[in-house]
């Protein structure tokens, strides 16, 4: 199951480079994780400074 980014996201982008499969992209007000691309590795979770990423 893919990880998700909550509305707590500040759109800082710190998670983007941590994703080994480039599943994270910038949205209008927050970043988004493509559920079909995400391999559920959790690498992005520890890089988020506001803890906005969690397992779905």
Which runs of at least 5 residues are low in confidence (pLDDT < 50)? Answer: none
Order of helices and strands: EEEE
Total of DSSP H or I helical runs spanning 4+ residues = 0
Mean pLDDT: 95
Shape: globular
**What is the percent of helical residues?**
under 10%
Tell me the Rg in angstroms: 10 Å
Total E-strand runs: 4
Whole-Å distance between the termini? 6 Å
Main pleated sheet:
2 strands, antiparallel
- What is the strand content? 15-25%
Structural class: mainly beta
What is the topology, as strand order, of the major beta sheet? Answer: 1-4
What does this entry look like structurally?
By secondary structure, the protein is mostly beta strands. The protein has no helices and four strands. The strands form two sheets. A two-stranded antiparallel sheet has the order 1-4. Strands 2-3 form a two-stranded antiparallel sheet. β2 (24-26) and β3 (31-33) form a beta hairpin.
């Amino acid at each position: 199951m893919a990880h998700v980014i909550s509305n707590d996201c500040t759109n800082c982008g710190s998670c983007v480079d941590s994703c080994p499969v480039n599943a994270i992209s910038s949205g209008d007000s927050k970043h988004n994780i493509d559920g079909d691309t995400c391999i559920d590795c959790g690498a992005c979770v520890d890089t988020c400074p506001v803890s906005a990423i969690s397992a779905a």
